[in-house]
Amino acid sequence: MTGGGPPGGGGAGPVAPGRGPRTRGWPGGLRDYALEMRGSVRDAERGPLLVVAGLIVIWIVFQALDDKFLSPRNLSNLSVDIVGTGLVAVGIVFVLLIREIDLSVGSVSGLAGAAFAVLNVNHGMPEGLAVIVAIAAGMAVGAFHGLFFAWLGVPAFVVTLAGLLIWNGLTLDLLGASGTINIDEEGLVASLTSRHFGDDVAAYAVAALGTAGYFLAAHRKRARHRAAGMPYRPTGEIGLRTGLLAVLAFAAAHTLNRFQGLPLALLIFLVVLVVSDYVLRRTRYGRRVYALGGGVEAARRAGISVERVRVAMFMVSGTLAAIGGLFVASGLTSASPTTARAAGSGMLLINAIAAAVIGGTSLFGGRGSPWSVLLGVLVIQSIASGMGLLGVEDAVQFMITGGVLLAAVAADALSRRAAARRGRP
């Protein structure tokens, strides 16, 4: 589910001279396959496997400390809590892929929530229209940042740092010095995090569709690579991966059904991940994004409009930050100066960047995928959830989150240094 680079890139094994493409493992026996998989774990492209191992350890530790951690109720709440930060982190992935950073996403999220609340509650605008305006505002902010960066040459770090302050200030101005705006608890936005599909069929249907979709995509990719004379995965490996995914997907569906069913928020998040991954991996535009992450001058020589791609990536980041902000407002059922200051202080920003990087997206550009966010945000939110159950102070949570982020970035840097010593890109 989590990819580490551009479509068709690496990890498929060598091609034997004069013998056509070799598959990745089983024709040489289980021992050869095990050795190959052992080598792939050391590869920077296989970092998500280590994240999965780390996530399992986190869950085991917190379950041992508090048996409520893996309860259906807590896991269902966890699946909703990851969505706001996760959506923001998906936008961060698009910007990181072109070797840039967006420091304004926390403030843009707060601005979107405040804009919706002011328009809907204070001015009586219909919820649907207020949502559209709030999301459009995030897109406009992203375009503003992108234009300053791509066309005027102002560093993205400076542009978005200024944006962090500007949009946070505008949010506070919209809400007033001491005003809290409560949104309708039965309304459209509030239902984003409170709505669940109680019928068991819904969760199992999503699990089945996801598993079938993965199998079909993997099988089609195998057929394309085989027809083109490129290395391809053996059918047995595809079957094994599909089986493991099915076990995880149906176990998750069963757990959700033991509480209130499939959360609407989680469903929306999964749809965003699928669409984002498709755009990046299966479209010409996505290939341009990865090419730009590989090198600006090489992308220019290939005929790519670097400026347009850069502006588009910041627009995506701003749009998803605004959508994530609506989910944050939905969970709180309010917008207030307190929450706006929290966004401006950087916690949402840090958690979003941490989710992207921990999942496997590189801060050095050109490597990562939206699916990496799912693992990363699960790690971040699992730590927060477990410590919340244990009553750990916020200060300790901040330090642990910062330590996890530092470790992820250090691992990324070390893996790239090791790859450079081996003569790999």
Automatic annotation (TrEMBL):
Presence of keyword Cell inner membrane: yes
Described purpose of this protein according to its UniProt entry: Part of the binding-protein-dependent transport system for D-xylose. Probably responsible for the translocation of the substrate across the membrane.
Top-level taxonomic group: Bacteria
Keyword match Ligase: no
Taxonomic source organism: Streptomyces coeruleofuscus
Cited Pfam families: BPD_transp_2
Compositionally skewed regions (Low complexity) per UniProt: 14-25
Region annotation (Disordered) ranges: 1-25
Membrane topology: Multi-pass membrane protein
Protein name: Xylose transport system permease protein XylH
